[in-house]
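Q: I'm teaching a short session on how sequence maps to structure, and I want students to see two examples side by side rather than one. Could you give me a first protein with its sequence written out and its structure tokens following it? Keep the formatting plain so it prints cleanly on a handout.
A: Of course. Example one:
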Amino acid sequence: MSTFDLTIIICSTMAGLVIGGLFGALPWKQEQLSDRQQRMQQMTGFIGLCGVLALILTRQDAASWALIIAMIAGVGLVRIPPLYAWIIKRFPVCRPTSKKHKSRTTKKGKTGKR
């Protein structure tokens, strides 16, 4: 392996940890995501996918595997309870939102049909 290959592997690993960390820091339940968090999640996934595809197309197999494994490790690291609590406290953009749902029951009344 050349120095160039090692540099690409190290950079893709660091990027994968950041991408995985962002995925892990955002709420996992759809109803707890705000619109901004949904956009962040979609863009992060798109960037991760483009990174893996670019590495595969340039025949950087070790770097593409490093990126995939680092994204998985990033999610796992951020989901450690004390670290997750610190991230939620430190970065308000990652906090789950509690959207109030309207009641599904309707008032009984005249429907117009007889």
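Q: Perfect. Now a second example for contrast.
A: Example two:
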Amino acid sequence: MKRRTFIASGSVALLGGVAGTTLGFKSQFSKDESQADYQDDDRIVYEHDNMKLRPRQESANLGDTIQFEVTNTSDSKIVLGCNNPWAIQRFSDGKWRHVAWTKDRYYQMCAQEVGSGDLYTQNVTMSKSGLERQSGNVAGKLGPGQYRFVLLGTSPFLATDFTVLDSE
């Protein structure tokens, strides 16, 4: 009887702790600056031994859809994160600032394989409504400038730069 009471008490304490953690978790963004959870890992590179990331075009107008290609350059398959989580950052005041990220994909526990020599394409629409559809939230205002696409399904994260021009 005491064992059951102890186990039940432990379960309630565990559930209470999980609920407290869930209800009291750190906001996705801090108050002073947009800070997404993925930014806790600052290892972002532009070159990777087993893959290449590049935009199909070096620039796009606001509102346009830009395509990013991930190519497996290794002799074997590579594994990316679940549904290829990604982020968009804008270069402003001398540093990269968060704009949007696919947070729902970031925490999923699955993987996507890309075969040797195969290519995966990710489309991103560079408008507030387009990014909100794809990521759920846009931090700050979009405008012309230097941006980067960050592939979050790799370790370290892989990035490529692109330019956003004023819409014509």
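Q: What should students look for in example two?
A: Point them to this: The CA atoms of residues 85 and 105 lie 5 Å apart. Also worth mentioning: The first helix runs from residue 2 to 23.
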